[in-house]
Amino acid sequence: MKKITLFAIGVFGLLTANAQVGFGVKAGYNLADFKGRTGDNPGMKSGFHAGGFVRIPVSGKFSIQPELLYSQQGVNDEVQVNEVTYQQKLKTNYLTLPVLFQYQSPLGINVSTGPQLGYLLSSKLEANKGSMDYKDFLKSTDISWVLGAGYEMRNGLGIGARYCWGLNNVSDSYNDLRSRVLQVGLSYKFGSGKK
Question: CA 109 to CA 161: how far, in whole Å?
């Protein structure tokens, strides 16, 4: 672990040695569910995300943007037992680390894509006026691929949307349960990298 940390610091140092690095914060709305069977009528769950990012110019209009975000995810379900329908909600909270490759046009429009690693912080299943800790039934990591677009003004204020496709099964109980999250939010870039 120590060697990996030192390697990451070294790579970051090389990338930023001659680059004008930008820093920022962001927050927004999540609409999440899971691909795969989680109930009889799975639906989208609302939540939010918030955190910060670093933008490292690479060449011309291209940059690398690592982020660290707190993200509320999960799914809303309907489960039928003996012809009685019960509502249940699975709440999952992740610490996510997207590493995005971004293209920024002169007009302020940007597109980005890249991998994302999510670490499960907590999970709770709420059903029939009760709740239980569900963290032990889910895997601790969620690997996703991100595709997004946005617009950033010259003052550093931006708006964007992205979709995160889960690439791995996050459940120990289902054969193929993958997260899907739509995010819409605002960002603000400040520091030496601001236009």
Answer: 12
Contact 95, 70 (CB under 8 A): yes
- Assigned token pair, 17: 């040695």
**Distance between CA atoms of residues 145 and 168, nearest Å:** 10
| pTM of structure | 0.82
CA gap 58, 13 in Å, rounded: 13
Q: What is the pLDDT of residues 54-96, one digit of tens each?
A: 999 998 899 999 999 999 998 887 666 666 666 788 899 999 9
Please name every residue paired with 145 in a beta bridge, in sequence order, or none if there are none: 115, 165
Place of tokens 């809303």: 76
For the chain, count helices (H), then strands (E): 1, 9
**Tokens encoding 7:** 């390697």
Tell me the backbone φ, ψ of residue 131, rounded to 5 degrees: -150, 160
Q: For residue 91, give the nearest of 144, 38, 28 by alpha carbon.
A: 38
